[in-house]
Amino acid sequence: MKSPVREPAHTPPQIDPGRGFEWVQDWEMSDEFETVPVVNRWKRRYRWEIGNRRWLGRKPSFFKDENVEVKNGKMLLYAKEDTAPPNYPPGYGKFSTAFVRTRKTRRYGYFEIYCHLRDSKISSAFWLTKNTPELWTEIDVFEYSTSDKINTSGRHFKTLYNMNVHVHRHPHGVKYNDPKIYDARRDLSQEPIKAGLDWREDEIVWYLDDVPVRRYKNRDFHQPLHLQLDSETFPNWFGLPETGGSNRNNLPSAFEIYYVRTWYRKPIWD
């Protein structure tokens, strides 16, 4: 599977919308990171929220607004060795990471990013979620790390595309997660990749470089969700980078997103 070339703006997905439908781009949940000055990008009227006011980050890392930057036609989510502010609860420190999400939510559609994954134990992640008092669901398009650890099936993380679905809270008491792994058999951090999710009422399909790598019968994922991009530390899963400026920890480093594109299906006869 070769790394794809970046498709020009306004290019529809390579995924068939199905008979009787066409793709329509949702520009409130799409960004080419080229035409809007950075100073305007985070204003309330615009499409992104930076940081997470309900979650400080995954310990020992913490989200830091300054770790999000837009330049040279891409959004950069940095991870760095850092020190948490003194007012943070115990357990936060050592590493700062980054978090952004769309202000708008959407139910169903095709969600795609073209990106260069971080070469680090600290994750690069693309996911959709929303947390309300009644309902909290999550679809993980991918969580990725080039950790030198070996996973439970004896494979190297740097070739693994980790996908998941979570029902954290449900009015009927449903609660579960269903992780799946696709082995790309190549280091996914070496070249840009295209990651996509086709979320329909009856099925969810994950795509890597326009190739389907997982299918899931959709039972519980009908809640409008935010599109989110972030980086986290996973001490037990990926392990933690070394500290003290070691050449082995690949920090500071960036998860680079060249575009975010979202489409929805529209009946052709409308």
Keywords for this structure?
single chain, 270 residues, mainly beta, Jelly Rolls, 8-stranded antiparallel beta sheet, 44% strand, Beta-glucanase-like, Glycosyl_Hydrlase_16, Beta-porphyranase B, hydrolase activity, hydrolyzing O-glycosyl compounds
Tell me briefly what this model is.
The protein is mostly beta strands and 270 residues long. The chain has one helix spanning 38-41, and strands spanning 21-25, 48-50, 61-63, 68-71, 74-82, 94-97, 99-106, 109-116, 124-131, 136-144, 160-169, 176-177, 180-183, 193-199, 203-208, 211-217, 225-230, 253-267. The chain has one domain: Jelly Rolls, CATH 2.60.120.200.
Task: Give structural notes.
This protein is an all-beta fold and 270 residues long. The chain has one domain (21-267): Jelly Rolls (Sandwich). Helix content is 1%, strand content 44%. It is built from one helix and 18 strands. The protein has one helix at 38-41, and strands spanning 21-25, 48-50, 61-63, 68-71, 74-82, 94-97, 99-106, 109-116, 124-131, 136-144, 160-169, 176-177, 180-183, 193-199, 203-208, 211-217, 225-230, 253-267. The strands form two sheets. Strands 1, 3, 4, 5, 6, 8, 14, 15, 16 and 18 form a ten-stranded mixed beta sheet that branches. The longest helix is centred in the N-terminal third of the chain and has 4 residues, at 38-41. It is globular. It starts with 20 loop residues before the first strand and ends with a strand. 36% of the residues are buried. InterPro entries: Beta-glucanase-like, ConA-like_dom_sf, Glycosyl_Hydrlase_16. It comes from Gracilariopsis chorda. Belongs to the glycosyl hydrolase 16 family. GO terms for molecular function: hydrolase activity, hydrolyzing O-glycosyl compounds. It holds the Pfam family Glyco_hydro_16.
